[in-house]
Amino acid sequence: MADTPQSGPAPDVPTRLTTADGKPLKAALAKAQAAARRRAFLLVLPLLAFILITFVVPIGQMLHRSVHNEGFAVHQDIGSGVRTPIMTNLRDWFAANPQGTEPDEVAYEALVKDLVVLRDLKAPGQAGTRINYERSGSRSMFTKAARRAKKIEPPYKEAMLELDEDWADPELWQVMRGAVSPYTSNFYLAAVDRERDAAGDIQRVNENRRVYVTLFVRTLVLSILITAMTFILGYPIAHLLATLPLRYSNLLMILVLLPFWTSLLVRTTSWMVLLQSQGVVNDLLVSIGLLSDDNRLQMMYNRWGTIIAMTHILLPFMVLPLYSVMRPINPSYVRAARSLGATSWTAFRRVYFPQTVPGIGAGALLVFILAVGYYITPALVGGADGQLISNLIAFHMQKSLNWSLAAALAALLLAGILALYWIYDRLIGIDNLKLG
Amino acid sequence: MALPKHASTLERVWHYSYLVICALIFLFLMAPILVVIPLSFNAEPYFTFTEKMLRLDPEGYSTRWYDLLLTFGMQAPDAPRDGSWWADAWANAHWINAAKNSVIVGFFSTILATSLGTMAALGLARSEMPARRTIMAILISPMIVPIIITATGLFFFYSSIGIQDWGIPYLGVILAHATLGIPFVIITVTATLVGFDHSLSRAAASMGADPMTTFFRVQMPLIMPGVISGALFAFVTSFDEVVVVLFVGGLDEQTIPRQMWNGIREQISPAILSVATILVVISIALLTTVELLRRRSERLRGLSPG
Amino acid sequence: MKLRTALMASALTSVAAMASAEGEVTVMSWGGAYTKSQVEAYHKPFTEKTGVKVNSVDADNPATPIKAQVEAGNVSIDVADVEFSDAVRLCDEGLLEEIDLSILPAAPDGTSAEDDFIEGALQDCAVANIVWSTVVAYNTEAAKNAPGSIADFFNTEEFPGKRGLRKSAKATLEMALMGDGVPASEVYDVLDTDEGVDRAFAVLDGIKDDIVWWEAGAQPPQLLADGEVVMSTAYNGRIFNAAVGEGQPLDIVWDGQILDFDLFVVPKGAPNKDAALDFIAFSTDTQRLADQASWISYGPARKSSGALVGLYSDGKTEMAPHMPTAEANLSNALVNNFEFWVDKDAELNERFNAWLAN
Predict the structure, then answer these.
(1) Can you give the CATH number for the domain in which C349 is found?
(2) Are residues A199 and A241 in the same domain?
(3) Claim to verify: residue A26 and residue A99 sit in the same structural domain
(4) Is C70 near chain A, with CB under 8 Å?
(5) Do A88 and A231 have their domain in common?
(6) Quick check: B159 and C216 CB within 8 A?
(7) Where exactly are the structural domains of chain B?
């Protein structure tokens, strides 16, 4: 360092503040701050790495399946893990012939050759399942044709059509053209009830198979409804808690916090006990004569079950942010408004309510985000029409085993939630979240 | 909240109806939790209050469903209840094994979540922390991402790395539950750090304390309530979690929620309600602990009015 | 500290328990009364004879975890008990071990296993153990009039009350058509056409608001006993056990029953494959299959077992008339067409889901 401590300020040389050992103060400060930043970051690093590995990577991997499915491109032997490309002849034919080309004898020859390979690898079921995702009924065409593939002789087209005339279906060829590449957007199309027709254009699926858009919309509607219900129920009690003296409000607060701390499954079970047709509420209504024994209300295993139970479960997530906003509101504002001649309603509407809006925003966004992704409660009490999109994701994960479609649905749901999460973070700040 | 003397009749009517409405909402919050408690002592296998129960006839009540929790899955449930009967129950009863698994998983995932989470919260609370907002958002995200998505992602991930062959039982579930508990630890610990007066650490440092001493003698006692309530949240999250266990857990890794899930779907006998009652009692105990901690924390920081 | 030591100790014992688990085989089945019958008739004698421990685990449908486990390379079950169409489908997809049928013992009179099993009961990757059926059951106390035919199930005018149905297209669509008067012999021809599927859904539309859906086989007897539904489709053995075993007021309408096999399969990469094959050979011999029928009213898959079926485990109920294969119960019975479902499962379930959601 060339700079040395100067004995006195000189008008032509700008004063440089330095530390005792002669370094410029600015640099020393920057260095100290960099060290502090590093220290802070090092504290966070283990957890960040942990979350990245055990959470972000797995989810990314899962979402990758929504665009990647190699069922019609590569066969992986389960025991040895050996990977063999399949449908290679057909892929070459597709590469050489543009979209819309009528499959000729060469194409059928490629198909038969590939079927022989499938047969040897015991993979016709795998390849057929991949095609079956997009064109129902194709699965058995592959297994049957592969069984006889070795005996098929030219002319191949004729022989294949004799096996099953559906082999000439242009839609089938369109699906195969898409599936020879492991990357596809078709699962996203399926997740919004769309498909490609024989010419490759996007169209809506047949009316009686449309389900995902309906379910996304229902999830949205029910979540909005549940958010509104928690607001309607949560606002009055948050207000009561915020205006009572602390020693009372702390006691009442336990009534909000206890459900919050109680197992989700316990609360769901309780609602089943209360609401089923031979349950407590129906018994009560029958015994006081409001209902006849034959007309018991069906409040469980349908949409109502989902709405009631979820409102109950999510209510504390609305009350707590509201309370934390309402508590510090100075009551003298409302009193001032009253003394200036406002009716109590006007005072509430013009003075008190606007001050609580941040709490409403925080609570509503939180409840909505949580409601959109709910799984357990609708699965147990929702019956058929109380199911949400999460339940369908679980269906494709566990039952139909169409993992790519499950991943595409999950990706759409996740995108919506992350958008809301981003808004929440912008408007309220995720670090302002408080839990009791 | 008291009504002023000059309130009009209309205001009085409104005020009292408001109180009634609030009472009803509190009833809505509490009723479902409380109604299972008496029904778990039902002598009959139904979910309704029998006449005998309503007459408070002792015959209408029994502890048979609690007994069933012990005997379900035992090899010789009808043997005389001596030492070997209890040993049988301890080793074979499904619910006892589920409880053991839940405690093991809850304990280790809580330790992991709390230690990593507290450290990170200390870093995040520093003003020098780079990219604070983004990192915070990433760390909280396990709470926001729908559980079904997390569970499926973890299932494939753990299978692909072959975690079940590492020979550590419950490892997958413990790691997953730690991930789910971390946001709660971060939130509660950062909340206690918000009120933390940094001049205290500087004072300690100026008097010659090294950073470790400062941390353990000054910071630690002050943030301890936040750490403990974060740990309790993490434990409850793990103790209550069923979806991840269903996807990731091995067949012998039955936890209490998983056992309940099976029970609810197969036959919801009042035995489920007795488990529910026990869990409610546990949550009351936990809630009391958290409340006491909160008061202690406020007293330490001089925030509370009383 | 004490708590901690105790926890560590119990964690360690479970490690030890896992490590020593060499002589064991894990069998996945359908839970409830059915699993119990298998434990009594197969698992316990098998352990007694070979010393190999049998772990029993349950699933709503054991076929569904197999694909996930095999593809993820994380197989924890050795033997699974699955339906016919699932066995064929999983085998086609290369997810099952092939079973060498020569390991199966001959019947006591020397008839070879291949001749002794009912037609279709032996597949490349699967060995059937029982014939079971989906039936309509009703609560005799809650039902105002006793239903007599499958059509009554879909007639909520004369037979009011909630209905329980399995939440799946399979069996539900066939029942709907039979309820609409389609004879059992024509059901699959009708269902193979778009009009037939529309017709089935139209029948279901008529009772849609009254349906409570179930998924696990143990649910329908519970729903019926609790009075949550008046009538329900159910697995016949579960109803038999609830009615005869537990004395619940339940009865079966055999008209329109749908017969199916349950088969044992071994997932590819099963950790104890040899023990699994031993278990299958042991469990499907003539005596074991007959024994199982004394615990639940499912028909044995071997012809030679039929003569050995006697009384229910209560010691007084004759099993024969309760079997789905009893002559009197077969007057209008449908045999599940596995080829139809292997092919159409995805399509019809998709449509079924759409119908449920709308």
Answers:
(1) 3.40.190.10
(2) no
(3) no
(4) yes
(5) no
(6) no
(7) 96-300
| C-beta of residue C209 within 8 angstroms of C-beta of residue B257 | no
The tens place of each residue's pLDDT in chain A, 436 residues long, gives 444 444 444 455 556 777 777 788 888 888 888 888 888 889 899 999 999 999 999 999 999 999 999 889 998 877 677 888 999 999 999 999 888 788 888 999 999 999 999 888 888 888 888 898 888 778 888 888 888 888 888 888 888 888 888 898 888 998 999 899 999 898 999 999 888 887 778 888 888 888 899 999 999 999 999 999 999 999 999 999 998 888 788 888 888 888 888 888 888 888 988 888 878 888 888 888 888 877 788 888 888 889 999 999 999 999 988 998 898 888 888 889 988 988 888 988 999 999 998 889 888 988 998 899 888 888 888 877 888 899 999 888 888 888 899 999 999 999 999 998 888 888 877 666 666 5
Question: Is A15 in a helix, a strand, or coil?
Answer: coil
Residue A291 contacts by C-beta under 8 Å, 6 or more apart in sequence? A282, A285, A297
CA distance B109 to C11: 14
* Residue A371 domain flag: yes
Structure tokens at B267: 């036959």
What would the CATH number be for the domain defined by B96-300?
A: 1.10.3720.10
**A2, A16 in Cβ contact below 8 A?**
no
User: Could you tell me if residue A66 is inside a domain?
Assistant: no
Clarify whether residues C250 and C287 are in a common domain.
Answer: no
Chain B residues with CB-CB distance to A36 below 8 A: 126, 128
Q: Which chains touch A (3 or more CB pairs under 8 A)?
A: B, C
Whether B104 and C10 lie within 8 Å, measured CB to CB: yes
**Pick from B233, B234, B105: which is nearest to B173 by CA?**
B105
Shortest distance between the Cα of B179 and any Cα of chain A, in A, equals: 7
Q: Secondary structure of chain C in the HEC alphabet?
A: CHHHHHHHHHHHHHHHHHHCCCCEEEEEECCHHHHHHHHHHHHHHHHHHHCCEEEEEECCCCHHHHHHHHHCCCCCCCEEEEEHHHHHHHHHCCCECCCCHHHCCCCCCCCCHHHHECCCCECCCEEEEEEEEEEEEEECCCCCCCCCCHHHHCCCCCCCCCEEEECCCCCHHHHHHHHCCCCHHHHHHHHCCHHHHHHHHHHHHHHHHHEEEECCCCHHHHHHHHCCCCEEEEEHHHHHHHHHHCCCCEEEEEEEEEEEEEEEECECCCCCHHHHHHHHHHHCCHHHHHHHCCCCCCEECEHHHHHHCCECCCCCCECHHHCCCCHHHHCCCEECCHHHHHHHHHHHHHHHHHHHHC
Establish if B166 touches chain A: CB-CB under 8 angstroms.
no
ipTM for this model: 0.85
A51–B136 CB contact, under 8 Å: no
* Structure tokens that stand for C346 in this block: 């995805």
Considering only alpha carbons, which residue of chain A is nearest residue C228? A277
Range of the domain at C350: 133-259+327-357
In this prediction, residue B305 has a pLDDT band, given cuts at 50, 70 and 90, of very low
Burial of C279 (0-12, 13-18, 19+ CB in 10 A): buried
Determine the structural domain holding residue A27 and report its residue range.
21-51
Domain total for chain A? 3
Cα distances from A300 to residues A221, B68, C33, C211, in angstroms, run: 19, 27, 26, 12
pTM: 0.86
Note whether A90 and A141 are same-domain residues: yes
Residue position matching structure tokens 């599936």: A179
Q: Is residue C286 part of a domain?
A: yes
Residue C341 tokens read as 């479902």
HSE toward the beta carbon, residue A155, CA cutoff 13 A: 6
Query: In Å, how far is C58's CA from the nearest CA of chain B?
Result: 9
> Do residues A203 and A229 both lie within one domain?
no
Is B188 within 8 Å of B228 (Cβ atoms)? no
Do C203 and C113 reside in the same domain of the chain? no
